[in-house]
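A quick aside before the break. I want you to see a complete sequence-to-structure record at least once, exactly as it would be stored in a machine-readable document. Don't worry about memorizing anything.
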Amino acid sequence: MILRVANPIYDSVFKYLVEDLRIAKILISAFLKKEVLEVEVRKHEYTNGTRDNISMFRIDFGAKVRESDGSQHLVLIELQKTWLETETLRLRQYLGAQYANPDNIGKEESHEFGIPMVTVYLLGHKVGDIKEPIIYAVHKAYDYYGNEVTEGIPDPFVESLVHDSIIVQIPRLHGRVNNKLEKVLSVFDQTHKDKYNRQMLNIDEDNYEDDTDMMYILRRLLAAASDAKLRQDMNVEDEYFTAIENRDTAIMNRDKKIAEQDQYITEQKNQIAEQNNQIAEHMKTLQATINSLVNRGMSLDEISVVMGKTVEEIKSIIR
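That is the input. The structure line, written in tokens, reads:
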């Protein structure tokens, strides 16, 4: 059965989706590939309201995870989603704010340490020539000789200074469902987008009927599709992005025209330079010819007759 659900690429729908803590837990567990015991939304949750040249949605979670050895610890998850190509520096600014946030400092006996952090980027665009839809940029520790250091790792001091990142290229998903994470992210796959309404996705629920978590996510997106306020919010986002796209199209057309003009000017300059070179070569040839005739004892009057030029022209050439 095909379900017509709200498209979570929209900020409003995505927020509605992940503010359900059960879904947040499912999503974070799939990203971390670990058992997540508890999830809480950190108090600095916000969307980028000004959005001039990018769309940025950000939400921060605290997740208590259980490792394979049974130990438990807190991990900060900074989840950022964009529609348009992203300014890397803007992402770094958000990350810097997280490091500086005193709420992200843990205490252990007599000293403080930074709570381990994982950044997750859901990108609505492709990253260079990287073909893999999901990339794990995971840090490791090495000695001077390049050997991996494992003894004593992880360490609170090291974990306070570095973090792991997970990058998802939504346009690269293309129906891939080879693991748990790709299955969860399949609801973001834009190949399911409705032909006549990009605010909706057409999802075959038969593909998920044996997965209670996925069915729960689909039901949440189904509810979003029927929510009047969310539909209005999506309309606002569409209006905003239409304006952005129109602006970007105008800028691209202007830049293309300027580039064409610059190319024409460059070609003209090259042609002029080539003509000047030809003239210079021609003058050298004339000078050589005149000098040769002078060496043969011919007068300037005689040379002017031979070359079809006035005596003054001959004088100007040999100056």
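Two observations worth writing down. The CA atoms of residues 44 and 241 lie 25 Å apart. The first strand starts at residue 2 and ends at 6. We'll return to this after the break.
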